[in-house]
């Protein structure tokens, strides 16, 4: 992951502003949250009372031989014990309820927000990072809660309480007993920074092992076919060793810290007895105080042992909070205007008026493109790679906003349309067919409940997809694997056609797939395309000659400019760019003599 | 489990050292409450301070010594756990690499990953934490019980009574806890794949305005995840207070019953302090013992799952002759298929075939009696409908699968006689699915020969017509694939995989629909370049495009796993049967173009 970003985030870990934002998610559950907050000091109080009761028991009753008094103290002790148990459990449960509910809300908001982010955002953000934000990061916050890290506040309360009580019982004795506190804090601080670094190293190295494994096993065929097993093993071993070494270091820190805290707790007790021995003899300190102090020290070192782990968890969580809110703060730049255009009927007229567009500033992909498409007309967009054909398909439904000029649908600027209304009328079939994990029917309806199974069948039949769907063992209920891995490229295309047809858009933008399929499927696809183009405005980014033939007009783009418009015959007669493209791509494909020159032709124009 | 004992045996000396430290730690730790008792009794009875001070000094000395041996015991044993984990992972990885493709077709990668990550971790915990606790707990109990019984048997029994209860509760709950933890993990995995899919499918979702649908699906998973998390938290939250409660109860008994014994003069205050000390020391080991049961169960189950991987023996292994007889001799590249039949093994429960590769996952024979010979240096085109067996046929050549009947020969020698490395090093294979590693472009091309220089890499990239596009990337050949959203088009990937195969400089080259996403013009250019530069290579090429195979020395037409026709393009077109039928539409386009 991004190193620099992490560092910067760690720098301002305990940012109050972040906590305040987190509070927005906690607020709906504040009643439960208050229960948790109230239970925190109560738990501490019950815990702190126990050694004190022990002292009273020893000094007042055991020393005095008062058995009845001892019973009273015993009952009080039992009550404190029960109280600690109940308040602790209530506190933890309340915290968890609040945490789970507010984190679920946070995840929901993140997901909804991500769905609204502009297409440009996804271009610069890898999918993996988004998945991390919504799962691993939110889970890191969750971990902070569910591992009881919030009890770190209770721990601090308890530690302070112990110090105060000890000092008030016997100031001098307490000072001697707690003499080791400053060095202890220094040691803790030393280990805190070390372990933080090693934990992070371990996490990174483990992630590297996992990524390597995942990749090598996915590409095992390539490894075997090139006989590179030994090389891959060497690479794996090196990652594996790095991970182990980091763990060895961490084990050493962990073992040392644990042992040092353990030793210091005993030495503190020893110091107290040393000083206490003389004091008790002189009658300055009660025996019960010694017993109570031993107990307080026991309770003092328990949270200290866990402090380092809790601190790391907490810090990871805070970094996660920061990252998550960063994502939530990414602005949604493409939205519908307040009084949006939402027509009942759409004729399907398209006008591009002097459209200029660039993905990055000033790197124009489209330059001053103007054309009009009448309702029902079909247009083939033709041009060499990088001419700007695919870009046009992304502009019509506002995946991107243009920088200059206007795009109108039915005479209304698309920026004045209600975005969802516009997208419902403009169907886009992408070159890369994306299929969702689920059955065939779901992939056709995309979860729309107003489409009956009959509607879906009809759409599939119309675009020649029903044949292969029926042959699948489960038919329309056949489960599709990740990205439709159990379908061929041609079948995936037919499915995407059926999906578009079921949706019945007034305007269809179709980016034809380039990958070659077997000739039989090819026939089915061509026939389906013809049917799709009937009776609706169609813009096809054409790769097949037959598709171009079927279009009413051809628009030729070259280096972002619209260069030629007309029918096949007219453009061939013109002997311009189209003629050359035709010679290069389609005539050659069909096996006729290639054009007299290769690639450079286009550069000369 | 035998393998596990093997590891323990292998590391026995380090374990023994760790255990020795562990025993010393326990002995020292358990002497401290006893010494405290001495000190408190000394104070209680008003003995000279000097006497008490010597006890106190002894305590400090023991505390320091104990700190040292304790840290040694912990990291000695934990490190052995890590070392075994490291070794386990290495051995698993090495073994996995020897397993044939048919194994990977029936084994989801996600499942293997979970074994290599989660199961190995479970084994490591058992071998580190598990071993420490299984020795520590009985040791602590023996010492503590001896000391406490010596002071007061009845108080011992009363004070210790809650502890077995704690053990039972932890044991019962930890099983539940493990189950719920796994549920939560599974829920998180579901959420991940949902986000992954939604983000990847964003253009479709957006184009069809189906955000609400996705929100609904995510919302459902999110709710379920929340519920599972709450269920886990209910249980998890019980542990800390329960532990405090139970050890507190022991303390209560000491105060109450023990106190009355002091009043009665049967016990000293020092005894009470010692009791309290022992109870504190026993609390954690008791709880750990409860955990240990589930740690053991989990480790054992994990080991069994790993054992399944080991028990899968590689079915495709080096040939008997292992190339020894032929070493030094160069392979010319003559390929012979002799009456080859092939069927995917019946027990292959494969989840569908790969994309565009209509294998049927049953025991059906997919290739029947395939016989043909490709003389060295010749090019053969293989065509046929989807599912005709073209891909399967070429997969047999590098022995990604073994023939069911018949034989395949290279230079007249059965490929099963070669060592695998020797065989595969003479075949440059360009698979249908252009798989690249997330490494630099340069490293991907030089995959088979990392030591090769940049010039050779460039030369093969030029041959594959991808050089220009690589140079256009800001970092050129140093570009890391997959980094920062750095994605390549299907055509670019295919040309890179071709470069990779070309760089291996093999006498045989196999192109399995390898240029399907490359446009026709570029494909023509590449094939032309290959023809002129690699005249001595034997080439097997599968394609749907007539343009790609029309210049082959001869063409094999497959249908339903059988060879139906063979001959040159002209011969086949003249014959006018299957081959011409297959390319009817491309011929039609040819006619149209002439209009």
Q: How do the strands of the widest beta sheet of chain A line up side by side?
A: 6-9-10-3-11-12
CATH class of the largest domain in chain B, named: Mainly Alpha
- How much strand of chain A? 5-15%
Mean pLDDT of chain A: 85
Our count of helices of chain B gives 22
Low-confidence stretches of chain A: 1-11, 587-605
Shape of chain B: elongated
Corresponding CATH superfamily of the largest domain in chain B: ABC transporter type 1, transmembrane domain
Kindly state the percentage of residues in helix of chain A. 55-70%
CATH-level-4 superfamily name of the largest domain in chain A: P-loop containing nucleotide triphosphate hydrolases
Gross CATH architecture of the largest domain in chain A: 3-Layer(aba) Sandwich
* Number of E strands of chain B: 10
Task: Give the C-level CATH assignment of the largest domain in chain A.
Answer: Alpha Beta
How many domains in all of chain A?
Answer: 3
Strand arrangement across the biggest beta sheet of chain B: 6-7-8-3-9-10
Describe the protein.
The complex is a heterodimer of chains A (605) and B (595). Chain A has 605 residues and is α/β, with parallel strands linked by helices. Chain A has 3 domains: 8-170 and 309-331, ABC transporter transmembrane region fold; 172-284; 350-604, 3-Layer(aba) Sandwich (Rossmann fold). Chain A is built from 23 helices and 12 strands. Chain A has helices at 3-11, 16-26, 30-62, 67-116, 119-124, 127-146, 151-169, 171-177, 181-218, 220-225, 229-281, 287-329, 389-395, 419-425, 440-445, 453-462, 466-471, 489-503, 519-533, 545-550, 568-574, 577-589, 601-604, and strands spanning 350-358, 364-373, 378-382, 404-409, 412-413, 426-429, 438-439, 479-480, 507-511, 537-541, 553-558, 561-566. In chain A, the strands form 3 sheets. A 6-stranded mixed β-sheet of chain A has the order 6-9-10-3-11-12, sandwiched between helices. A 4-stranded antiparallel β-sheet of chain A has the order 2-1-4-5, covered by helices on one side. In chain A, strands 7-8 form a two-stranded antiparallel sheet. Chain A is elongated, with a radius of gyration of 36 Å. Chain B is of the alpha/beta class and 595 residues long. Chain B folds into 2 domains: 2-311, ABC transporter type 1, transmembrane domain (ABC transporter transmembrane region fold, Up-down Bundle); 324-435 and 501-593, 3-Layer(aba) Sandwich (Rossmann fold). In chain B, the strands form 2 sheets. In chain B, strands 6-7-8-3-9-10 form a 6-stranded mixed β-sheet, sandwiched between helices. Chain B is elongated and about 120 Å long. Residues 347-362 and 588-595 of chain B have low confidence and may be disordered. Chains A and B meet through helix 3, helix 4, helix 5, helix 6 and helix 9 of A and helix 2, helix 3, helix 5, helix 7 and helix 8 of B.
């Amino acid at each position: 992951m991004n190193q620099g970003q992490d560092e910067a985030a760690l720098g301002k870990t305990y940012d109050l502003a972040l906590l305040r934002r987190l509070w927005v998610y906690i607020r709906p559950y504040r009643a439960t949250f208050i229960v948790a907050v109230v239970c925190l000091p109560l738990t501490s109080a019950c815990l702190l009372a126990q050694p004190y009761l022990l002292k009273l028991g020893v000094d007042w009753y055991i020393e005095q031989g008062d058995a009845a008094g001892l019973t009273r103290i015993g009952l009080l002790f039992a009550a404190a014990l029960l109280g600690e148990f109940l308040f602790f459990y209530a506190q933890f449960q309340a915290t968890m309820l609040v945490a789970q509910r507010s984190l679920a809300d946070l995840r929901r908001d993140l997901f909804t927000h991500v769905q609204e982010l502009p297409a440009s955002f996804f271009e610069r953000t890898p999918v993996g990072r988004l998945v991390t934000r919504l799962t691993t990061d939110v889970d890191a916050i969750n971990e902070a809660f569910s591992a009881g890290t919030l009890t770190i506040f209770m721990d601090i309360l308890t530690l302070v309480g112990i110090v105060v009580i000890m000092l008030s019982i016997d100031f001098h004795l307490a000072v001697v007993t707690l003499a080791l506190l400053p060095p202890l804090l220094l040691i803790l601080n030393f280990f805190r920074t070390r372990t933080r670094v090693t934990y992070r190293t371990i996490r990174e190295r483990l992630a590297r092992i996992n990524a390597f494994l995942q990749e090598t096993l996915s590409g095992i065929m390539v490894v075997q076919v090139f006989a590179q097993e030994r090389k891959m093993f060497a690479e794996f071993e090196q990652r594996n060793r790095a991970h182990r070494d980091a763990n060895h270091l961490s084990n050493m820190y962990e073992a040392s810290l644990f042992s040092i805290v353990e030793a210091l707790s005993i030495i503190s007790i020893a110091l107290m007895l040393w000083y206490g021995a003389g004091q008790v003899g002189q009658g300055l300190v009660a025996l019960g105080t010694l017993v109570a102090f031993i107990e307080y020290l026991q309770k003092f070192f328990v949270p200290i042992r866990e402090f380092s782990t809790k601190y790391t968890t907490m810090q990871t969580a805070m970094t996660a909070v920061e990252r998550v809110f960063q994502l939530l703060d990414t602005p949604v730049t493409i939205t519908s205007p307040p009084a949006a255009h939402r027509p009942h009927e759409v004729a399907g007229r398209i006008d591009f008026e002097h459209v200029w567009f660039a993905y990055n500033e000033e790197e124009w992909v489209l330059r001053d493109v103007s054309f009009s498409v009448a309702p029902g007309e079909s247009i083939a967009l033709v041009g060499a790679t990088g001419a700007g054909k695919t870009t046009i398909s992304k502009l019509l439904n506002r995946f991107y906003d243009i920088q200059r000029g206007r795009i109108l649908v039915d005479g209304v600027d698309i920026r004045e349309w209600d975005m969802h209304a516009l997208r419902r009328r403009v169907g886009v079939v992408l070159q890369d067919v994306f299929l969702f994990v689920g059955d065939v029917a779901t992939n056709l309806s995309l979860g729309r409940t107003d489409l009956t199974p009959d509607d879906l069948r009809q759409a599939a039949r119309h675009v020649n997809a029903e044949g292969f769907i029926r042959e699948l063992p489960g038919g329309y209920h056949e489960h599709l694997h990740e990205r439709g891995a159990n379908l061929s490229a041609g079948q995936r295309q037919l499915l995407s056609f059926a999906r578009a047809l079921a949706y019945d858009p007034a305007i269809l933008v179709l980016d034809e797939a380039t990958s070659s399929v077997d000739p039989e499927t090819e026939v089915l696809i061509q026939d389906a395309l013809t049917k799709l183009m009937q009776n609706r405005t169609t813009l096809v980014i054409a790769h097949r000659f037959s598709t171009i033939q079927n279009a009413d007009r051809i628009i030729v783009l070259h280096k972002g400019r619209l260069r030629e418009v007309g029918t096949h015959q007219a453009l061939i007669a013109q002997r311009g760019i189209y003629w050359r493209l035709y010679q290069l791509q389609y005539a050659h494909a069909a096996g006729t003599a290639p054009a007299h020159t290769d690639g450079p032709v286009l550069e000369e124009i | 489990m035998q393998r596990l004992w093997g590891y323990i045996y292998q590391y026995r000396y380090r374990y023994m050292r760790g255990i020795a430290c562990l025993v010393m730690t326990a002995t020292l730790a358990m002497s401290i409450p006893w010494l405290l008792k001495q000190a408190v009794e000394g104070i209680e009875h008003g003995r000279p301070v000097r006497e008490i001070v010597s006890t106190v000094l002894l305590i400090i000395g023991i505390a320091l010594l104990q700190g040292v041996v304790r840290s040694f015991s912990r990291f000695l044993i934990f490190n052995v756990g890590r070392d075994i984990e490291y070794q386990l992972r290495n051995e698993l990885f090495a073994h996995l690499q020897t397993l044939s493709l048919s194994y990977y077709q029936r084994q989801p990668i996600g499942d293997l990953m979970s074994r290599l990550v989660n199961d190995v971790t479970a084994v490591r915990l058992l071998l580190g934490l598990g071993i420490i606790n299984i020795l520590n707990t009985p040791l602590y109990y023996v010492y503590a019980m001896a000391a406490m019984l010596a002071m007061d048997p009845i108080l011992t029994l009363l004070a210790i009574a809650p502890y077995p209860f704690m053990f039972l509760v932890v044991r019962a709950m930890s099983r539940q806890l493990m189950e719920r933890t796994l549920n939560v993990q599974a829920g998180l995995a579901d959420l991940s794949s949902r986000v992954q899919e939604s983000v990847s499918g964003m253009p479709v979702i957006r184009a069809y305005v189906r955000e609400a649908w996705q929100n609904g699906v995510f919302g459902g998973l999110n709710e379920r995840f929340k519920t599972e998390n709450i269920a886990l938290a209910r249980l998890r939250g019980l542990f800390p207070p329960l532990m405090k409660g139970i050890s507190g109860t022991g303390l209560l008994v000491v105060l109450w019953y023990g106190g009355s014994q002091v009043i009665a003069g049967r016990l000293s205050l020092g005894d009470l302090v010692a009791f309290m000390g022992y109870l504190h020391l026993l609390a954690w080991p008791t709880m750990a013992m409860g955990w240990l049961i589930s740690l053991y169960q989990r480790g054992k189950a994990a080991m069994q799952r790993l054992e399944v991987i080991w028990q899968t023996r590689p079915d495709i292994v080096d040939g008997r002759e292992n190339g020894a007889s032929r070493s030094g001799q160069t392979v010319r590249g003559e390929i012979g298929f002799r009456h080859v039949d092939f069927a995917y093994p019946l027990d292959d429960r494969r989840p569908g075939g790969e994309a565009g590769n209509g294998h049927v996952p049953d025991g059906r024979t997919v290739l029947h009696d395939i016989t043909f010979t490709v003389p060295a240096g010749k090019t053969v085109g293989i065509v046929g409908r989807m599912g005709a067996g073209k891909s399967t046929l070429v997969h047999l050549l590098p022995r990604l699968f073994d023939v069911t009947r018949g034989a395949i020969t290279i230079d007249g020698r059965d490929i099963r006689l070669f060592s695998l490395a020797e065989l595969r090093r003479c075949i440059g294979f360009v698979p249908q699915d252009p798989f690249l590693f997330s490494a630099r472009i340069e490293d991907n091309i030089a995959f088979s020969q990392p030591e090769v220089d940049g010039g050779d890499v460039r030369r093969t990239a030029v041959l594959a017509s991808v050089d220009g596009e690589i140079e256009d990337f800001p970092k050129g050949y140093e570009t890391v694939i997959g980094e920062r959203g750095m994605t390549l088009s299907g055509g670019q990937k295919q040309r890179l995989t071709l470069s990779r195969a070309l760089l291996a400089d093999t006498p045989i080259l196999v192109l399995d629909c390898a240029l399907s996403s490359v446009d026709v013009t570029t494909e023509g250019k590449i094939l032309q370049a290959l023809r002129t530069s690699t005249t001595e290579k034997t080439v097997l090429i599968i394609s749907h495009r007539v343009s790609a195979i029309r210049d082959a020395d001869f063409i094999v037409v497959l249908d339903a796993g059988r060879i139906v026709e063979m001959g040159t393009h002209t011969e086949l077109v003249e014959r006018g049967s299957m081959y011409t039928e297959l390319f009817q539409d491309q011929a039609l386009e040819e006619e149209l173009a002439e209009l």
